[in-house]
Amino acid sequence: MSQRFDRIWQNARLATFRPDLPDLGAIENGVIAARDGRIVYAGAAKDFSPSVDAAERVDCDGRWITPGLVDCHTHLVYGGNRAQEFELRLQGATYEEIARAGGGIVSTVTATRAASEAELIATALPRLDALIAEGVTTIEIKSGYGLDTATEMRQLSAARALATMRPVTIKTTFLGAHALPSEAAGDKDAYIDRVCREMLPAVAGAGLADAVDAFMEGIAFSGTQTARVFETAQSLGLPVKLHADQLSNLGGASLAARFGALSADHLEHTDAAGAAAMARARTVAVLLPGAYYFIRETQKPPVDLFRTSGVPMALATDCNPGSSPLTSLLLAMNMAATLFRMTVSECLAGVTREGARALGLLAETGTLEAGKSCDLAIWNIERPAELVYRMGFNPLHARVWRGQ
Ligand code: DI6
Ligand code: FE
Which of 15, 34, 249, 296 could link 403 by a cystine bridge, Cβ 3.0 to 4.6 Å? Predict the structure, then answer.
């Protein structure tokens, strides 16, 4: 019996990230076959029937294929930039000082409110293209620079529009509880009230968000305020995630776990209790070495604790104008290895399988397995470690999204 496929990639080395195989799930002489945009076979050439028929065969000349990369934490859509604030920091001001002085996130809010949806799309596209050029096939994009209903919705709508303009899967996240807008005059509870009663129902009603995030921090929102946002999100059927323990330990990891969050992100200050709670809840730790590097943080996330507690670890760019103006997942991997001492396998799993898990998309993408979307990155490399080792070099040969 002969089967017909749309495309077959052969003579490839596969990093499958299959959960039943160790490390990268490597297969030396591998084949991937796709039909209707989905993987039908990914495995050893010797187990693949030679009688199959395919509309197109691609000889990979021994190149490595990984799953298409997943950037599971970005703030890609925003107005303006913060190069001037960067200069101030070079003169000695800290990130928290700038935030308290009305700079920081709030200055990006002003620029984002002033931007039309078309302008938000136009400025985000080059950043998206930079990620795509490195093999990214799935990306999460947060709001959080509007802090009023209309602008938050405009940001999310721009993020949705990007998905129609490029071959990429985009998941949107509502981050209304990112910072306190100046018109809230210091009243965080009243603002959270508005997030829960007005903004979240409007965003959910318009189908603009796939998840809800919050920034739980001294300069942002408390655990009580975050819990209110999460309760409202869950009552609207939306999964939650959290910017947790980035600058201090307010128990963000434990709170995220208590709500069964998809992920808790940053986590520089997370303690053993937080890691244990995340392990029990299967909440993914999303580590963001770009932010750690850019704000010159010295407290490292407890990678060893996550390892020994069995907390899955993902990596992302945190692409944002204030603390991580980074549009390279390859560089994020190099930083995670160099700064956090993550292994090559952990880094690569972090931008594929674990990134997909952090978005609730593991059934859909993130590994090379039959049944999943055929999202591939094909690399001109001799060994996978090259993807982590180099700084500022892109060895992508080809990228496939949904079989194309
Ligand atoms: N944590 C961060 O690192 C970013 N947001 C957040 O909650 C920073 C956002 C910004 O400074 O614009
Ligand atoms: Fe972030």
Answer: 34
